[in-house]
């Protein structure tokens, strides 16, 4: 399908196309400022490829910059340029979702949004606007409504090559965590640092900071969301473990990738799979597990099977006193309705909290007697705050609803409303309309 209008080419835009071909910049301010006038230029400069769901290949030398649905400002500006290397950009891919199917029904002007995203990209780094770079568009098609469209990734992938002649630092010197005194094996820590440097896993030290603040978490197991955007945070958790073996109380870790590339329609509550468990004693085995689980799958759709992964871990380690969950704050919990099956406190380390705290994770912590943690703060007395009707996080007051959920008192402050659908069990075909409380069934 041709998503651009087929209007005739103005003589002036033809001349502009010729002139820009000779210039270093591919997109002039005139083109970006008048995207509808130069729609044919965009069509010829950015060919479109249609896919069901865009799959990001971490093995490539690339950086993924996220805009969000119908937005153009980046949520992770600091990810470009990549640290520790002299990156020379080679390809720019803009990722959209084709919803509605026909552009005449789109609420956001497509060409305007495309131009604004490119403007933001070039503001971030003017070197990304160059005739030597290949530009393209990927259009995702696996969505039938706006909610499904919102769950897909929207942003820009920048691929690059490394100029080896101007490499700025060695892998071992990459700064991935705060400078702290360690009590573990420096050799094991170096293994993780090298692994993170090779894979280009850079994070904001949120996980490391939280774990370092809570040495009292003994007889614990850790469950890590190991889908695409979470790889760096999971590696950071294991780095902390390697550097603090003498005081760590974490005996096992579980990585989950939400189904091992399973088709979205085949993902069932408690039976999605893609969960792998390992003892924390051997860092080499952990690194192998990282690669194994990543190769098995990176998530697919946005919601994840957090509760199933927690249950699988507790089945494997029933002697554990608590669970530490390294969670993606931006993703929904597809199997939240099974939370009552968890009988141990879940302490949740939230990653990606620029937009606030996702109430789904707040509810998991509250229901299990656990807690919420970010890089900046800990919320360890949720039950007490709920009883006093005084639970407030980053200026947003949460209230207990008649459905026994903690939600923002002001519904317009609910930035994660797209996850609300997962608070109830899905309707089953050929049964009564009334939703029944699901049973605690999990992958064997």
Low-confidence stretches: 1-23, 165-184
SSE string, helices as H and strands as E: HHHEEEHEHEHHEHEEHHEEHEEHEEE
* Main sheet summary: 7 strands, mixed
> Beta-strand level of the residues, as a percent range?
15-25%
> What is the tally of beta strands?
15
**Rg, Cα atoms, Å:** 23 Å
Question: Shape from CA axes?
Answer: globular
What is the number of independent domains? 2
Q: Averaging pLDDT over every residue, what do you get? A: 80
Put simply, the count of helices is 12
SSE-based structural type: alpha/beta
Strand order in the sheet with the most strands: 8-7-6-9-10-11-12
Distance between the termini: 44 Å
Instruction: Give the % helix.
Output: 25-40%
Q: What oligomeric arrangement do these chains adopt?
A: single chain
Describe the overall structure:
By secondary structure, the protein is an alpha/beta fold. The protein folds into 2 domains: 156 residues, no CATH class; 252 residues, no CATH class. 27% of the residues lie in helices and 18% in strands. The protein has 12 helices and 15 strands. The protein has a 7-stranded mixed sheet with strand order 8-7-6-9-10-11-12, sandwiched between helices. It has a 5-stranded mixed sheet with strand order 1-4-3-5-2, covered by helices on one side. Strands 13-14-15 form a 3-stranded antiparallel sheet, with helices on one face. Strand 6, helix 8 and strand 7 form a beta-alpha-beta unit. The radius of gyration is 23 Å and the shape is globular.
């Amino acid at each position: 399908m041709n998503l651009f209008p087929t209007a005739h080419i103005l003589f002036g835009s033809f001349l502009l196309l010729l002139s820009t071909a000779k210039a270093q910049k591919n997109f002039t301010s005139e083109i970006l400022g008048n995207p509808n006038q130069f729609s044919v230029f965009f069509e010829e400069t950015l060919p479109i490829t249609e896919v069901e769901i865009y799959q990001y290949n971490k093995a490539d030398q690339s950086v993924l910059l996220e805009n969000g649905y119908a937005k153009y400002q980046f949520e992770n500006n600091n990810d470009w340029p990549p640290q520790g290397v002299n990156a020379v950009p080679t390809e720019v891919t803009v990722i959209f979702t084709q919803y509605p199917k026909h552009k005449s029904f789109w609420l956001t002007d497509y060409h305007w949004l495309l131009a604004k995203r490119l403007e933001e990209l070039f503001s971030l780094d003017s070197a990304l606007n160059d005739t030597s770079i290949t530009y393209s568009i990927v259009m995702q098609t696996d969505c039938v409504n706006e909610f499904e469209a919102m769950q897909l990734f929207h942003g820009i992938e920048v691929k690059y090559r490394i100029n080896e002649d101007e490499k700025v630092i060695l892998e071992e010197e990459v700064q991935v965590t705060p400078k702290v005194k360690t009590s573990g094996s420096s050799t094991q820590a170096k293994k993780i640092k090298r692994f993170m440097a090779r894979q280009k896993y850079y994070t904001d030290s949120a996980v490391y900071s939280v774990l370092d603040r809570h040495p009292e978490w003994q007889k614990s197991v850790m469950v890590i969301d190991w889908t695409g955007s979470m790889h760096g945070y999971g590696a950071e958790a294991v780095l902390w473990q390697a550097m603090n073996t003498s005081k760590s109380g974490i005996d096992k870790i579980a990585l989950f990738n939400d189904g091992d590339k399973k088709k979205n329609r085949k993902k069932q509550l408690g039976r999605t799979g893609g969960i792998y468990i390992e003892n924390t004693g051997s860092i080499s085995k952990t690194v192998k597990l990282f690669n194994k689980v990543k190769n098995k799958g990176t998530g697919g759709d946005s919601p994840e099977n957090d509760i199933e992964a927690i249950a699988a871990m507790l089945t494997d380690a029933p002697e554990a006193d608590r669970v530490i969950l390294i969670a993606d704050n931006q993703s929904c919990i597809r199997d939240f309705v099974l939370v009552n099956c968890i009988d141990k406190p879940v302490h949740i380390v939230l990653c990606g909290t620029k937009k606030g705290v996702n109430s789904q994770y707040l509810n998991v912590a509250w229901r299990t007697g656990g807690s919420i943690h970010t890089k900046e703060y800990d919320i360890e007395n949720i039950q007490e705050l709920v009883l006093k009707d005084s639970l407030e996080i980053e200026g947003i007051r949460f209230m207990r609803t008649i459905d026994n959920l903690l939600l923002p008192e002001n519904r317009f402050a609910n930035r994660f409303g797209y996850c609300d659908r997962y608070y109830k069990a899905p309707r089953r075909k050929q049964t009564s309309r009334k939703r029944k409380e699901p049973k605690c069934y999990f992958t064997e």
